[in-house]
Amino acid sequence: MAILTKEQAQTLLKKVLSYSKADECEVGLNGSEGGNIRYARNAVSTAGDISNLTLSVSATFGKKTGTATINEFSDAALERVVRRAEELAQLAPENPEYVPLLGPQTYKESITWVPATAAITPDTRAEAVAKSIKVAKEANLQSAGYIENTSSFTAMANSKGLFAYNKDTDVVFSITTRNEAGTGSGYAARGYNDISKLDTHSATKISASKANGSAGARAIEPGKYTVILEPVAGAYMLENMFRGLDARSADEGRSFMSKPGGGNRLGEQLMDEKVNLYSDPFNAELPSNTWSRDGFPLERTSWIDKGVVKNLAYNRYWAQQKNVQPVPFPSNMIMTGGDASLEELIKSTEKGILISRLWYIRMVDPQSLLLTGLTRDGTFYIENGQIKFPIKNMRFNESPVIMLNNVEALGKPERTISIESYRSYLIPPMKIRDFTFTSLSDAI
Amino acid sequence: MTGMGLGATLLPKMPAFGKEVPLDSPWTTIDPAIKKQMADIALNQATSKGATYADVRIGRYLNQYVVTRENKVQNITNTESYGIGIRVIANGSWGFAATDKTDADGIAKATALAVEIAKENARLLKEPVILAPQKGYGEVQWKAPIEKNAFEVPIKEKVDLLLSVNDAAMKGGANYVNSILFLVNEQKYFASTDGSYIDQDIHRIWPTFTITKIDEATGKFETRNALSAPMGMGYEYLNARPTDKIKSVTTLYKQRYDMLEDARNGAAEVQQKMKAKSVEAGKYDLVLDPSHLWLTIHESVGHPTELDRVLGYEANFAGTSFLTLDKWQSKNFNFGSKLVNIMADKTQPGSLGAVGYDDEGVATREWPLIKDGILTNYQTIRDQAHILGLDSSQGCCYADNWSSVQFQRMPNVSLQPGAGNQSANDLIKNVEKGIYIIGDSSYSIDQQRYNFQFSGQLYFEIKEGKIAGMLKDVAYQSNTQEFWNSCAAVAGKEDYRLGGSFFDGKGQPSQSSAVSHGASTARFNGVNVINTARKI
What we know:
The structure holds two protein chains of two kinds.
Chain A: H1 6-18, E1 24-40, E2 43-61, E3 64-70, H2 75-91, H3 115-118, H4 122-138, E4 141-158, E5 163-179, E6 185-192, H5 200-214, E7 224-229, H6 231-242, H7 247-251, E8 277-279, E9 301-305, E10 308-309, H8 316-322, E11 334-335, H9 342-347, E12 351-365, E13 370-383, E14 386-390, E15 394-398, H10 400-403, E16 407-410, E17 414-417, E18 424-427, E19 430-440
Parallel strand pairs in A: 7-12
Antiparallel strand pairs in A: 1-2, 1-4, 2-3, 4-5, 5-6, 7-19, 8-9, 8-11, 9-10, 12-13, 13-14, 13-15, 15-19, 16-19, 17-18
Helix pairs in contact in A: 4-5
Chain B: H1 6-9, E1 19-21, H2 32-48, E2 53-69, E3 72-90, E4 93-99, H3 104-121, E5 138-143, H4 155-171, E6 176-192, E7 196-215, E8 220-225, E9 245-247, E10 251-253, H5 259-275, E11 277-278, E12 282-288, H6 290-302, H7 307-311, H8 325-329, E13 342-345, E14 366-371, E15 374-375, E16 397-398, E17 407-408, E18 412-415, H9 424-428, E19 433-445, E20 451-463, E21 466-472, E22 474-479, H10 480-485, E23 487-490, E24 497-506, E25 511-519, E26 522-531
Parallel strand pairs in B: 5-7, 11-21, 12-19
Antiparallel strand pairs in B: 1-3, 2-3, 2-6, 3-4, 6-7, 7-8, 9-10, 12-26, 13-14, 13-18, 14-15, 16-17, 19-20, 20-21, 20-22, 22-26, 23-26, 24-25
GO biological process, one term (chain A): proteolysis
GO molecular function, one term (chain A): metallopeptidase activity
InterPro entries (chain A): Metalloprtase-TldD/E_C, Metalloprtase-TldD/E_N, TldD/PmbA_N, TldD/PmbA_sf
């Protein structure tokens, strides 16, 4: 069984710690169980089930640390892995950045585990996929999709008495539908902790309507346009920015958060005042892990407040260097918005482009956070508040920082996933002016 | 898509590829006789549960990475991942299950689950899986032809190398330097109901760095990454040999790499980059070094010739391909100019793709994809070969771990050298207005592989046949077919080198594979270059 209860994990980790003779010792357990189905051309292609449990031990003498792990759990094996870690610590070079372990912390119970999701069996997945394929067939489209559910837990404990535990369930679903002629393509993606929220029928309906609506796309001249980014497009774009909310790289002068003249942009008005970003592991729509990798309790934290940089992450070493409190990296990210629906954003747009999905986003320049990528699976021209016609896909070169300075309006936030990392976010649809397209693509 | 850029790999806390093992653990392998016993448990269980075909992969995947910055070692980690993956066909459908419980009971249970999944999914099939015939090879072995097992080189030697590289960069004027040595060993055992028991030992190495220069007053910074390539080699890759160096505007490397020299050059060049002229957007003739061109080949030739993409199996993630079957069937689809000859192989010595047998027990080979500019073939595995009318698989099946299901992955895909023996300098001297690009950086391409954009590490302006100084803020955009048809010259075989990636991402759940791309320096006429400078 790869999923241990809190009590089982604590008992096991305490036993491992009891073997330690090091100055400091940290132990971790990680287990997951899950399954998936891929389908394409309206039929299943591959499917699998994976289960794994691992234990790691880090022992420290002074500032010398060694790490060893195993997947055997007999008493002899547990003692052996601790001895190995200790031997390694004596061989390892001294790390001047080593910071002593945290003492006991208090964590609120997480809300990330949903029993119904943990109870998924191969036939649950097959049923969800059957519903999706049925919609595609009825719409005369070819479907390709993916469903994956995972149950997992992580636990850590250390020789100073810290113990942390979290268990989590997750299900992700994505669907692409294409017409037979290959002239139209649509997409939808969903991610939840709770399987009961997943409706593969309605998601496939949306994908099908994008596929049929995108056929016969016309070319327009690349350039600067007002765009409406659906949440799945916006999340992928912003994810690249979230990764850069780090004080050290900013202070070192090698990030978009670096300030000319030295230091970082904390406190600076970097974006439009409509922009608010925060993390909160207890958000009911987007619950997440309640502690960081180094054992800090995670609480609601504001990162961008009315466009002002409110927090950057400081690891414990860097916080010590800068004489500030450590700020752990968040386990989720939420962007606030308004009440407007996507349809209302479209209605309020005189001329613009609706972007259903973005694709293959990569960093061009870390200094300005310039990203390039393309539109995909449904790009539409808007005129006088209405979708007029589908347009051909285009490549953009744009920075999310510049983009968040050009916010015209934000809609109602929705839970969505990044199409590359599969991480979930709460992101509103965004209406952005002067979004820069640099070339046309023939891809459908 | 190439999933992880260099920046991500240089983070001090690398994503673990498996569980960590002791640093002083001697390099060992598992007796094939034990693996055969385990495999037979699964094969017997699968057939007794009703599978018509089964294969078993028992994998021990070792990684070691040493991560440093300036004068500090940030992380030394050994990881090991050991387990078994069982794939079956039952009721005409694939099923797969994987477990780290490798006792007889654990293997039997996982096998039964794989059969259950196959039967459950059979109702979602349109037609049963058709496998190309494959003979069993009996009990065979293949070992990568390495000279020095990098896992047996003491940690101290590796740490000393990286710290001396960092020291050279810092003495050369860098503000920061991050360096990493990344080692991979795949010990893979494959067995199938066709009667193969294949034991393989595969080694890979990737030494790399990023040197950063900052101008604190303006807040500007530039980086220069290593010009090494990840290779399917042992520690001998780091044994610098003069015969493997090409002296150009910088030093370029063939089958051996001089990391210390590259760091010295990098420190000098990153300072030149700070002062380089911002490019004027427009059309240029590009002269692309193999350290850059490999990635353009990977994205614009390697991916669109994957048959699973062409057929729609990757439509939901990586996408489909503009190289549809009708273009191949026409036998005259003009992919590139007549100079463009591109081969696929899983056999090139020192390459990342080289193995004796693929992950469904097919002996590896070499075949043409583009011949004299014409599309001639794709990349296939056993359940696709019949679609092309082939009587056997091309051996392109791969899984990145015992816990991942194998599927079609890119072999090495390489541009063949030109017939003459031109050097990069010979190509440059014929260019009136151009840019010479060295090293890879940003990359992006659409889901059918038409429109792409690439950047590099070093850009040199070419004016009337001569190098006229360094440029910055360069990216080029093109369309695959237009680009390869603009290929006007390819240097000779003396200039041929491999580039590659450890992290080519594909599939759901996403898997990484390592792949090499060979090329000699090549010229492309009239390519659209944009200026990427922005202010925030």
